[in-house]
Amino acid sequence: MVYTLENARSLGAIALIILVCWLFSENKKRFPVFLAIGALALQAGLVLALFAIPNSRDVLEGVTAAVDGLAAATDKGSQFVFGYLGGGQSPFMPTDAPLPFIFGFRVLPLILVISALSALLWHWRILEWITRGFGFVFEKTMGLGGASALAVAANIFMGMVESPIVIRAYLDKLTRSELFLMMVVGLATVAGSTMVAYAVILAPVLPTAAGHVLVASIISAPAGILLARIMIPEAPDAPKPDYDVTLKYESSMDAITHGVQDGVMVAVNVAAFIIVFVAFVWIVNNLLGLLPPLHGEPVTLQGIFGYVFAPVAYMIGIPWSEAHQAGNILGVKLFLTEFIAYIDLGAIPVDAMSERTRMILTYAICGFANVASVGIMTGGMSVLMPQRRSEIMSLSWKALLPGFLATLMTASVVAALPAMLFGG
Asked: Is residue 92 part of a domain?
């Protein structure tokens, strides 16, 4: 195995991320030393278990094949409704011409299908038992209470607003530290419906994107737990109630119906925010265009992001020659949305960025931690916990920092491992 300075530099990024969260801690004297060791060991262990096993490349390709199958099935439904706009053959183009990829007709329908499928798998108790398994791991290895452990595990597959529904009966019993932890992990992970959409966007430039996106959402949870506990430590005598699932469906059709309805809300939110933020970026870039050129190039918001976040990209293990381009992606993720960041990453030609850098960025931006998501999370949780609205409002913006840093920590853990483990 070849170990380089770039791998070692990523270890420094992990230490720096932990230090930053400790500086913002509400109780600096109660640093969770054993939790830090356990979280890093759990992250590294999960990565090694998923990638260092024999024929791990086949596992990635299997996940990719499953995602491709879901995308193909979604295309059939989309084409039935939207015709050639959903990916079918255009009557205005030659038969050998590449099919047009229209985001609204190819990606948003995928969110509906995955949302409905997730609800169905939950009703059949397949996804529920997988979630319980992860919850048991977090409870035993990281000392979480039963309710918060289950909610954190649900965040791996469900959205940051949907996952609290799993333990709705226990929300009023969560401590302030547990509530903050649930917010941070929600921002550090993504939902299964959007996870598949990201993989489809990246597939042309990163064939194994589906496996990496899935792993990213799983291993970002321990990072979110650690950073949340550093910033707001749990009281030593805090109660740890047993958990039970409160999310139930009456039948398979009821699960599909609720899944589609939830998917519609997610798809509408995604479309709306992308429209608004792309429009805002266009407006800002036109205003910045009035400034003198910088290094011979027009001043743009993306260019500013590149300069500001280039050191961050370099610290997590990306070569300096690609740090500006990577910093652009990180800035877009934080201040716009991760969807736009994935679209921008997928638009970079294969030969314009190394596979290793693209893979690291796939992990670094795989989380809901952005300005828009804070508003979505605050609104959703306030509906579920109206009596704790003021507490939610006071914690939501504070959760953005560790939520963003958790995905960077995940990317750093991956970058610190030899590249040969990932086939890149």
From this structure: no
